[in-house]
From TrEMBL:
Keyword Oxidoreductase set for record: yes
EC number(s) recorded for this UniProt protein: 1.1.1.47
Keyword Endoplasmic reticulum carried by entry: no
Protein name: Glucose 1-dehydrogenase
Cross-referenced Pfam families: adh_short_C2
Domain called Ketoreductase: residue spans: 5-177
PANTHER family with a match to the protein in the record: 3-OXOACYL-[ACYL-CARRIER-PROTEIN] REDUCTASE, SHORT-CHAIN DEHYDROGENASES/REDUCTASES FAMILY MEMBER
InterPro entries: KR_dom, NAD(P)-bd_dom_sf, Sc_DH/Rdtase_CS, SDR_fam
């Protein structure tokens, strides 16, 4: 389904990014698996066909420029890297925590859009991971909610501005079975808030990403795909 496509995937050292890199590679794409931790990115690429590990901090423009300079054209840029925010009252949230959350989760999409859009071939895809929490906020996560709601709004704006040459779509995961989940410090099992009563698996998100990156989704832009176990109902 993705044969011949070139895809850059950030946050590819674990979780959703790792599962997506593996799915894309097995479906025939050439994959640049980027992560701030190069060793984790290399582990992702182990035994994969046509996959290359790269180190990148998605908040740094020069790092993103280096990622897309690896090939003459890019078909898919999956802005997936993100950071959690530990549950805490608004009054205890520091400015440093706020800035870091917004920088990685939201500003990185702005940086990517400026750098990557000119490199995407006509019909190319800028894909971003947001979160169902943008629609269904939880208390104690103000910075995280703001960052993910901002991602959805920015992606929709980009979908109109970059059309018709570039498609822009969002995946909204529900609570996912990834290393990042522990970083929130939830007091109760978040799966119990989902109608399906199970965490989202990284492979669930990878499947949605593969569809959106395929030619079957060539008419889809500005979409927000919930892969959330029914959390948004």
């Amino acid at each position: 389904m993705l044969a011949g496509k070139v895809a850059v995937i950030t946050g590819a050292g674990s979780g959703i990014g790792r599962a997506t890199a593996r799915r894309f590679a097995h479906e025939g794409a050439t994959v640049i698996a980027a992560d701030i931790d190069l060793e984790n990115a290399r582990e992702t690429c182990k035994d994969l066909p046509n996959a290359t590990a790269a180190q990148a901090d998605v908040t740094r423009r020069e790092d993103v420029e280096a990622l897309v300079a690896t090939h003459d054209r890019i078909d898919v840029y999956f802005n997936n890297a993100g950071v959690p925010a530990r549950v805490k009252p608004l009054a205890e949230l520091t400015r440093e925590e706020w800035d870091r959350t917004l920088d990685v989760n939201l500003t990185a999409l702005f940086v990517a859009a400026q750098v990557v859009a000119p490199k995407l071939k006509p019909g190319g895809l800028l894909l971003v991971t947001a979160s169902i929490i943008a629609n269904r906020p939880r208390p104690g996560l103000s910075a995280y909610v703001a960052s993910k709601a901002g991602v959805v709004g920015l992606a929709k704006a980009l979908a109109t501005e970059l059309a018709p040459d570039v498609r822009v779509n969002v995946i909204n995961p529900g609570p996912a079975n990834t290393p990042m989940l522990e970083g929130f410090g939830f007091a109760t099992d978040p799966a119990q808030a989902l109608p399906l009563k199970r965490l989202i698996e990284p492979e669930d998100i990878a499947g949605a990403a593969a569809y959106l990156a395929s030619d079957d989704a060539r008419a889809i832009t500005g979409a927000v795909f919930n892969v959330d176990g029914g959390r948004d109902l």
